Amino acid sequence: MATALDMIRPAIDVDDEAALLEAIDRWIEREVRPVVMKYDHDDVWPAEIVAQMVEMGLFGATIGKQYGGLGLPAVTYAKIVARISSHWMAITGIFNSHLIMAVAVEKFGTEAQKQLWLPKFASGEIRGGLALTEPNAGTDLQAIRTTAVRDGDDYVINGTKTWISNGIQGSCFALLVKTDTRADPRYKGMSLFLAPKGPGFTTGKKFEKLGYKSIDSAELIFEDYRVPAHYLIGEREGQGFFQATGGLELGRINVAARGVGLAEGALRLATDYAQTRETMGKPIAEHQAIQLKIGDMVTRARAARLLTFDAAEAYDRGQRCDMEAGMAKYFASEAAVKNAEEAMRIFGGYAYSKEYEIERYYRDAMLMCIGEGTNEMQRMIISKQWVKRNPA
């Protein structure tokens, strides 16, 4: 018997953006929406949904076609992420973290590394993420303490990473380490490795979170973990800081797109509710106080969308876009938080019931202000880049 996914897959044409987005919409309607509340409330890994995303090629969304990926431009990718996030943000994080790892290989790896790893990433045979954060180092990546020491044809790695998305379910990670602990400046001593799970690599328990349910966030522990020297991305030490932060441009566009989706989803729920809920003999959408809220929400969501696509277009042109990605991430994530909050106010007491979806948007939105670099850091990046581009 044909499944809903079987009916969707033939319509997917990566060279026809409209057809692709329509296929994504049908998949969301038939496969995602019916199960999202159960998965979120139970905080269970959505194995069936992940398998469907593998079949649709989302784990190879931005990977070049020559390596088996869909080769989507960042603009199309952002539209997909926003659409999915408007109904369930968490599942986009499962392939986003994976794709940042892939970007590091595709942009900075040797051709042999690309041929070896990217087809397996694109097919979903190997899935994983980016391992940067440590207990003492989040935004300040140069403070990491995980080390890699050369030993013959291998490197021996010791240290701990934390809050790593896909930490339990993933099988390989782009791992940022120190190969020279005495380097000055510190970033010159940092390197990025591909680290598949194996002896010496263990995973801690899944962290319990306020929101962003179903995707696992965990600790990664390395104790005399060995990797072959050719797993060093680019096969040159000291390049890791730039390799990791280069991938974060796409990551921040993804987070911005998730913010757009959350802002638009909260707006959609609030708009529908405001037209059906009545007080004083008329729908609350006809009350001025609610109209003011919705007017602000519409404007916020639209501005977030435009900033996000502006950043994605700059990325597709091959331009440096840390300022544009920072602006999009900063504004869209704050728009998500504010729209979710205003939607909660429009729903009133029902917003606190888990029988309504809006409480999930409220729980999920705040993460977007923290993940992929805090918004405080984004504002500093924006300011520094603006001044640099506009010298007196």
The count of DSSP E runs of length 2 or more, i.e. the number of strands, is 9
The major pleated sheet works out as: 4 strands, antiparallel
SSE series:
HHHHHHHEEEEEEEHEEHHHH
Specify the number of helices: 12
- Percent in helix: 40-55%
| pLDDT < 50 stretches | 1-5, 7-11
Structural class: alpha+beta
Structural account:
By secondary structure, the protein is α+β, with helices and mostly antiparallel strands. It contains twelve helices and nine strands. The strands form three sheets. The protein has a four-stranded antiparallel beta sheet, covered by helices on one side. A three-stranded mixed beta sheet has the order 1-4-5. Helix 5 runs antiparallel to helix 9 and helix 9 (288-316) runs antiparallel to helix 10.
Features:
four-stranded antiparallel sheet, three-stranded mixed sheet, alpha+beta, 392 residues, 12 helices
Summarize the structure.
The protein has 392 residues and is of the alpha+beta class. It has helices spanning 4-8, 17-32, 36-42, 47-55, 74-85, 90-108, 111-123, 240-276, 288-316, 322-347, 358-370, 375-389, and strands at 128-131, 147-151, 154-165, 172-178, 190-196, 201-206, 217-228, 278-279, 282-283.
